[in-house]
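Fill-in record for KIF25 protein.
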Amino acid sequence: YQGLAGRSTDEVLQLCAAHGQQMKLQRSSLVTQLHGAIKRLKQDLKSLHSFALELSKDFQRQNKTCLYQVLVAVQGIQLQNEAMQMFQMKAFDLEQSLQEVTERYEKEKQKRKALHNSLIELRGNIRVHCRIRPLLPFDDAAGHLLSQDRQRNVSEKAAYAADDETVLVKCSRPGHASVNKTFQFDRVYNDLESQDAVFADVAPLLTSLLDGYNVCIMAYGQTGSGKTYTMLGPQLEENLAFSIEEESELGIIPRATQEVFRLISEKPPGSYWVEVSVVEVYNNEIFDLLAKDSYGKVFGIKRDVVTTREGKSDVPLLTHETVENASEFLHLVNKGLQLRVTHPTLVHAHSSRSHLVVTLTITTVVFGDNFGTLWEDEQTSQRLSKEASCTFPQKMRDNKSTSSSGASSPVQLEATEKMKQVKTRLQLVDLAGSECVGMSGVTGAALRETSFINRSLSALADVLGAIAEQRAHVPYRNSKLTHLLQDSVGGDAKLLVMLCISPGQKYLTESMQSLGFGTRARQVQRGQVKKKNFPVPSKGK
């Protein structure tokens, strides 16, 4: 407005009109731009609407597709579930069938075993069980004595338990193809089976003692194969005492004693009388390990073995100690074990150098009024207990008696006309191990011991061979060991040989020798074992 000052009215009006026209043009331009913007916005909205519709349609199509796929998947899962249920039903049926077959197999196996045992009883065959010990640290101790080829296989296992009746041995020599050999026995224990499993198969024999049968259990095998562990269990190195802390590790001898006294405890008091003797066969000489000097100290005394008029083997003046429980028995055996000869070798640090024979003699006392039976009622039991206590000397009742096998027992000296006795014996034998001198590395006196050990074991094999071939003469007297065990080996006892072998390739030759011995022993037929029959009741009474 300052520029309008001094101008005429017409000029002002023209200027205002021009300004108005200019403003109108500007507004028209703005309206046109706004209209174009609105038009473009409408087009964008239309495109966006079309895109939204297309997107919605696409979403619906994809939704239908997904629903269809989900439906198909659900149907597939249902079919899979049905198939799984069918499979589970079939698997359950198969498990039941397998269980039934397994049960039938076990029953048939037990029947076969019972029939096999009956056949063994009738034929008088020797039962042979084989135990394979685990690999031990000392298996590598003698490696420096071996050839280079054998040193490479020093830790390799050659003997396995294929099943509970079969031993598989892998025989391999440098430059030759490996050959597998199998050996069949009545029972085979692998290197993981415990002392409990071993004794479980031995225990049934012990009931035969109270039924009137003699029983003999002997461990055979090379040195260091686990015979003493199997028969006695782990022992302390210094005093050779039984390690009672681990009862699960106890061997056959302490377990058998506990079982015998358990069986006796179920019988009426006074019906049984138990004695024990412990001898060792060392360098083909028999030593009484329970003999005492004038001061009562136990020391080994040399004895001799003879054949009686009845053709039975006997050791005159042999010490028999009366025992009333397993603890007393183990105490006496421990005393004897302290005198047993041992010597360290390259194979075993505590190698037994003698054959140990522990004999448990059970005298069954049967009275005339009850012949053929063991007391059936409590009154009879009490009456016979009193009668037995009057008959038994006080020295024997105090469990301090010692008698000679060649002389009559205290009961026999005091026996009345109404009392009869039946004696049965349980012989538990821990044989010394066969040795290869090159393997054990023994010299001097130990070499002489090895010679006697191997000769006595060869004599035992010769005796079994003679019995198997039914020769007229059986060379029992070729060795003090076979002479001492004549009654047991010759058929007067149920005999079980516990074959112990080492699994290592290093001991393959020795293991094969032991397995061969067990195979030959199993084939021996001695005739039916004789039973010590109890007197028959008198019909007149």
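KEY FINDING: The longest helix spans residues 9-123.
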